[in-house]
């Protein structure tokens, strides 16, 4: 391989691209630490720029570690550095010149929203919360590549469930009840009067509980197969004091096939399922003939070329698919393996039709990642 006809300029560019990907992965780990250790929160509430020493003191950490973390964040353009002039001198024990350490660090308002405001719709720490668990899946990948068998979401442990919750609930808190449900034909009126609702793939139960709190006359059942997510959902339900919602494992209490539900929701889960077509048949059997299904799934195009050209996060999504979404969808020997970008509107509509649905409409909901569909018999 040493006699390759390599263009030296293209080689440099290619190597730069490769190590840029590594840089992003390492910085993602630093974002995880910033969130986990409360460093972003401390910067956000400081009232002004902080030195590394001041930031470390607020969090009760060693200043040298905090400074190096902050330098990574500045280099990645995630936090701001303000010039300092402090002379750090020489360390008496080692004789080595200290870092000048005079810089002060701060967050822009936009950074505060994304990094340190769990109630803001743009809060983005969910994926970084579960970053160690996601990366740990690499250890299982060689065997999956050999056998074709993936791993369900519980393989990511309880923090995996928390990470998914933190990824989607901030936006839902701002938009689910106020914007998404009113976009569906007659659903708000029905929920207000009182109907039976199923949230399939409910995760930690955030969406089901938001709806249950907003519509006390309706009755909600959340279904999920993750024991970690169900445990968290039940704990949150008790804390919220909600009596019109409950959470069950469909392997213990199957989704009924008697058309009792007038409204069914699925949030970002159909593409993760081992048998998505079968689930759509299950939803149709569970749904009243006049009912509505709110299908929310990852915004995807029909081809690789379109996804790469039109989605700047395509590399991330295809990679996460290997480590999580497609892995879940292939966690049984006959899993369909749709993957993160495997359910574009055309395929979703085709599968819904095969399950007995006659109407399929994309809703005019603006979301960076998800597409929203109203599906009816």
Outline of this structure?
The chain is 47% helix and 14% strand.
Shape: globular
Strand neighbour order, sheet with most strands: 6-5-4-7-8-10-9
Based on DSSP secondary structure assignment, what is the total number of beta strands? 10
Q: Count the helices. How many?
A: 16
Mean pLDDT: 94
Cα separation of the termini: 59 Å
Radius of gyration: 24 Å
- Secondary structure class reads alpha/beta
Residues in β-strands, percent: 5-15%
List the helices and strands in order. Answer: HHEHHEEHHHHHHEHEHEEHEHHHEE
Question: Which residues sit in consecutive blocks of at least 5 with pLDDT less than 50?
Answer: 86-98
Main beta sheet: 7 strands, mixed
Query: In percent, how helical is the residue content?
Result: 40-55%
Architecture overview:
With 377 residues, the chain is of the alpha/beta class. The chain is built from 16 helices and ten strands. It has a seven-stranded mixed β-sheet with strand order 6-5-4-7-8-10-9, with helices on both faces. Strands 1-3-2 form a three-stranded antiparallel β-sheet. Helix 13 (276-286) links the parallel strand 7 and strand 8 (287-298). Helix 9 (157-180) packs parallel to helix 11 (206-214). The longest helix is centred in the N-terminal third of the chain and has 29 residues, at 8-36. The radius of gyration is 24 Å and the shape is globular. The termini are far apart.
């Amino acid at each position: 391989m040493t006699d390759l006809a390599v263009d030296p300029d293209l080689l440099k560019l290619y190597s730069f691209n490769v190590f840029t990907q590594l840089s992003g992965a390492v910085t993602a780990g630093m974002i995880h630490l910033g969130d986990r250790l409360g460093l972003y929160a401390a910067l956000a509430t400081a009232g002004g720029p902080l030195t590394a020493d001041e930031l470390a003191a607020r969090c009760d950490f060693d200043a040298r570690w905090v400074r190096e973390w902050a330098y990574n964040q500045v280099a990645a353009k995630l936090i701001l550095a303000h010039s300092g002039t402090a002379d750090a001198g020489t360390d008496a024990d080692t004789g080595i010149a200290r870092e000048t350490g005079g810089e002060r660090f701060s967050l822009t308002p936009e950074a505060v929203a994304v990094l340190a405001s769990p109630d803001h719709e743009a809060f983005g720490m969910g994926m970084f919360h579960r970053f160690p668990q996601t990366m740990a899946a690499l250890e299982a990948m060689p065997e999956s590549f050999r056998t074709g068998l993936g791993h369900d979401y519980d393989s990511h442990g309880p923090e995996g469930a928390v990470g998914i919750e933190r990824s989607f609930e901030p936006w839902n808190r701002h938009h689910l009840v106020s914007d998404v449900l009113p976009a569906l034909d007659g659903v708000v009126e029905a929920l207000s009067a009182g109907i039976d609702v199923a949230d399939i793939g409910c995760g930690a139960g955030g969406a089901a509980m938001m709806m249950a709190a907003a519509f006390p006359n309706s009755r909600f059942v959340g279904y999920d197969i993750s024991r970690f997510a169900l445990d968290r959902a039940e704990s949150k339900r008790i804390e919220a004091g909600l009596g019109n919602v409950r959470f069950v494992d469909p392997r213990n209490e199957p989704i009924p096939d008697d058309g009792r539900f007038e409204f069914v929701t699925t949030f970002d889960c159909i593409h993760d399922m081992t048998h998505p077509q079968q689930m759509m048949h299950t939803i149709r059997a569970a749904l009243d003939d006049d009912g509505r299904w709110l299908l929310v799934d990852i915004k995807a195009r029909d081809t690789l070329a379109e996804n790469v050209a039109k989605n700047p996060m395509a590399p991330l999504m295809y990679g996460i698919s290997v480590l999580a979404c497609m892995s879940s969808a292939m966690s049984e020997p006959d899993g369909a393996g749709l993957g993160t970008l495997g359910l574009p509107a055309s395929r979703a509509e085709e599968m819904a039709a095969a399950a007995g649905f006659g109407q399929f409409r994309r809703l005019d909901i603006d979301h960076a990642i998800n597409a929203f569909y109203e599906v009816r018999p």
